[in-house]
Amino acid sequence: INALNSFKSLNIDKNREYPYYQFPMGDPLTMAISLGSQVYCANQKEEIKDLFPLQPGNSWAFKDGKGNSGSLECKGTISVKGKDLIKTRNVFGQEEYFGFYNQSLYYCGIKDPSVGRIFFEPAIKLGDEKIGAGSVYNTSSKIISESHPNITGTYKSDWKYSKREKIVLPNGKPYGDCFKVEESDNFELKDNTTGATSSSDAFVTHWFAKNVGKVKMDFSGEEVYLNEFLFDGISSGRVAMEEDSFFMNPSAQKIIDATKFLIK
């Protein structure tokens, strides 16, 4: 950036984040470059590993419209039935498990300290190496409760990468060319001992930025957005925050709450 500023007198502000495809709109040439690059990016295929940068030590801090804050950290891997799963955890001890297989990413399970680990068989497919606008991934799974085998269920999940768009978060940070993902889920749980059941559905909208991950989420009119992140020891301005919210995937939280209801 120093070299560019010196050579071209661009006066780029190094302390500000920019959408990577957005050029100054001062003349026809730069306008053509900007519009052309936006069209290119809108049709470019992406790899799921770039939308979910799940390297150990990476962490994301989120806020919502009410001022609540919370964070997730990638804690490395665990072995489950001979497979290495990537684990993320929040400060409340809740965990989510992911697995990369054949260039595809799967959502494998969750954990809450009060109910133990819950797995999805087969795991929920979130994407592969050829994600583009319009890509859809549908999965129907069984819900397996490790600590409560009498509780079983089914889980259907649809992930649609509907389009790509630029967004600006409430903290003023812009993220260019995000994937807008529409997630639609429904599940049903049953206690095979008592016959009691619990079911629910959810519709969640996510926005994912390449090499950053989830930057925004909207469910039931509630918005959660990325406030800070820390990758490979490099911070986007991370500050210490009081943890007062979970910020787990809403569908996963509903499954945990339903399990708690059935084991009362």
Could you give a short description of this structure?
By secondary structure, the protein is of the alpha+beta class. 15% of the residues lie in helices and 50% in strands. The protein has helices at residues 2-8, 28-43, 48-51, 250-262; strands at 59-64, 69-80, 83-89, 95-101, 104-112, 116-127, 135-145, 151-168, 174-191, 197-209, 213-219, 222-231, 234-235.
Can you give a write-up of this model?
The protein is an alpha+beta fold and 264 residues long. Helices cover 15% and strands 50% of the residues. A twelve-stranded antiparallel barrel has the order 1-2-3-4-5-6-7-8-9-10-11-12. The radius of gyration is 20 Å and the shape is elongated. The termini are far apart. About 6% of the residues have low confidence.
Counting helices, strands and paired strands, the structural category is alpha+beta
Shape by Cα distribution: elongated
Biggest sheet layout: 12 strands, antiparallel, barrel
Assembly type of the shown chains? Answer: single chain
SSE string:
HHHEEEEEEEEEEEEEH
Helix fraction by DSSP (H/I, runs of at least 4): 10-25%
